[in-house]
């Protein structure tokens, strides 16, 4: 029998994100995030397959994200003209974690982070700041060129490391606001979509109340 309400929708989730004491390039990668930085996978709660390993870290200087996608049989499809539907990591952040509103405030931001599609040859990783749909407040888009990215693409998959500096995260003040609203979707033209919690059945792209909470841990 099909479920009318996905199990992941029944709970409000909160995740602890570990502090990155020093940004270290490891094994040729922009971020050397070990397994202890992995974001828990909730897909098994509603029998959704997980094809991406997602890891996350923070420091006073910004937020780091790392994904590794496997199980593909061809390179990802990334189009600069259609970033929100391209293969890659799509992230929503609210630096004030205001989960009682259904329209984005000025503290809410969206980024499309793609493994390819940038550079003169279209083979470089690409970061694009996306205007929030149905936003309550108008907010200037951050300068996406400040975002650092590194990727490696193979036929069977890819990995992507991203560093979001505090300059692109409006209102990012870890010392006074250590809880942030957060949602992600790894979109893949071959494997489907993997999300943190609710899927595209729900309007998470425009409704911050559907996002979850990340707590910037100091342990």
What do you see in this structure?
The chain has no helices and 11 strands. Strand 7 (148-154) and strand 8 (157-165) form a beta hairpin. The chain has a single domain (7-216), classed as Immunoglobulin-like (Sandwich), CATH 2.60.40.1190. Strands 1, 4, 5, 6, 9, 10 and 11 form a 7-stranded mixed sheet that branches. With 219 residues, the chain is mainly β. The chain starts with 13 loop residues before the first strand and ends with a strand. The protein has strands spanning 14-17, 52-59, 62-70, 88-94, 108-118, 124-130, 148-154, 157-165, 179-188, 192-195, 212-216. 0% of the residues lie in helices and 37% in strands. The model has no long low-confidence stretch (mean pLDDT 89).
Attribute tags:
single chain, 219 residues, mainly beta, Immunoglobulin-like, 7-stranded mixed sheet, 4-stranded antiparallel sheet
């Amino acid at each position: 029998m099909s479920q009318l309400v996905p199990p992941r929708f029944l709970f409000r989730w909160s995740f602890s994100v570990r502090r990155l004491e020093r940004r270290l390039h490891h094994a040729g990668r922009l971020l050397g995030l070990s397994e202890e930085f992995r974001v828990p996978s909730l897909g098994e709660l509603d029998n959704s397959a997980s094809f991406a390993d997602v890891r996350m870290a923070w420091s006073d200087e910004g937020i780091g994200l790392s994904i590794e996608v496997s199980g593909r049989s061809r390179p990802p499809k990334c189009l600069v003209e259609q970033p929100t539907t391209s293969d890659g990591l799509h992230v929503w952040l609210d630096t004030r974690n205001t989960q009682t509103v259904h329209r984005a405030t000025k503290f809410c931001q969206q980024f499309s982070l793609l493994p390819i599609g940038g550079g003169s040859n279209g083979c470089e990783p690409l970061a694009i700041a996306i205007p929030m749909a149905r936003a309550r407040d108008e907010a200037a888009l951050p300068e996406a060129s400040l975002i650092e990215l590194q990727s490696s693409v193979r036929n069977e998959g890819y990995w992507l490391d991203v560093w979001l500096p505090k300059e692109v995260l409006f209102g990012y003040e870890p010392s006074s606001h250590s809880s942030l609203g957060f949602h992600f979707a790894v979109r893949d033209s071959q494997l489907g979509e993997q999300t943190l919690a609710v899927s595209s059945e729900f309007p998470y792209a425009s409704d911050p109340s559907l996002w979850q909470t990340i707590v910037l841990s100091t342990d």
